[in-house]
Amino acid sequence: MVQAPDLLAQTIWEGLVSGVLYALIALGFVLIFKASGVFNFAQGIMVVFAALTLVGLYEKGVPAFLAVILTLGVMFALAVTIERVVLRPLVNQPDIILFMATFGITYFLIGFGEAVFGGSPKQMIADQLWLPKGAIDLKLFGGLVSLQKIDIAAAVIASVMIAALAAFFQYTRIGRALRAVADSHKAALSVGISLNQIWVIVWFTAGIVALITGIMWGARSDVSFALEIVALKALPVLILGGFTSIPGAIVGGLIIGIGEKLGEFYWGPLIGGGIESWLAYFIALGFLLFRPQGLFGDKIIERI
């Protein structure tokens, strides 16, 4: 690190971009958890499904930006369907029931997605969406640091989305209603808050987050069901930051993104590589042992 600071800067930049995208994925989980108190295991496959829908519509001849609009319509229809078919019958059921329901949603979307779009990887329509190409080379620390323009765009778009969602939760009436529903379904119903409308709104918002995440990740690699594994990196991000904290999702994402890049580049060769695939979960395990509520989570004490 000391001998080649330019390589360190390059590694930190790549980790920063990954961390911001991890934080964006984690926000999808936070949205559902805030509105229902239940962890949504299906958020990872929603990222894949949204990206595949966008690419699939374009392959059918739909113009790129119209395909984005239609994909948002599909995600809204998915949100309404989930609320009507899955969530509405399970109001006031134990949290574990709702959690297991998200497993069912996950495997339904996997099967439905493979049936409609096939299982082969697809290329994201980055050029058609006017996403930038090429790189910006900076001379830093006596060396050269290369910043991919798509990474810069991903970091900026993800940051704007995170800020918008934070403001939405903090300053809007719907955001306050979401927090009330998360505290108690029965109390929210007693003051006139409609669980049905809130759940549709929050699942649709999570679908928008999934689409943006899928576009950004797909533009950096490709669109396939393997992308779900990347999306599950949000799990350690949530453990670090706290399941109900938007600032926690940001900080946790940056820690995981930068940490795994540094680990893979500097310590990977010493132990055979592959650190990037498991380091995030190792860090999360440490937090579970010593601070299970995360950096920004509330410590819940139940008195008997």
Helix and strand pattern: HHHHEEHHHHHHHH
Whole-number average pLDDT?
Answer: 82
Structural class: mainly alpha
Rg calc: 20 Å
* Outline: globular
Reading side by side through the largest sheet, how are the strands ordered? 1-2
Count of β-strands: 2
Strand content: under 5%
Helical content (DSSP H or I, runs of 4+): over 70%
Describe the structure.
One of its GO terms (cellular component) is plasma membrane. A two-stranded antiparallel sheet has the order 1-2. The longest helix has 32 residues. 71% of the residues lie in helices and 4% in strands. It is mainly alpha-helical. The protein has a domain of 210 residues. It is built from twelve helices and two strands. 42% of the residues are buried.
Fold topology:
Elements: H1 5-36, H2 43-59, H3 64-87, H4 95-117, E1 135-140, E2 143-148, H5 149-171, H6 173-183, H7 185-190, H8 195-220, H9 227-231, H10 234-241, H11 246-271, H12 275-290
Antiparallel strand pairs: 1-2
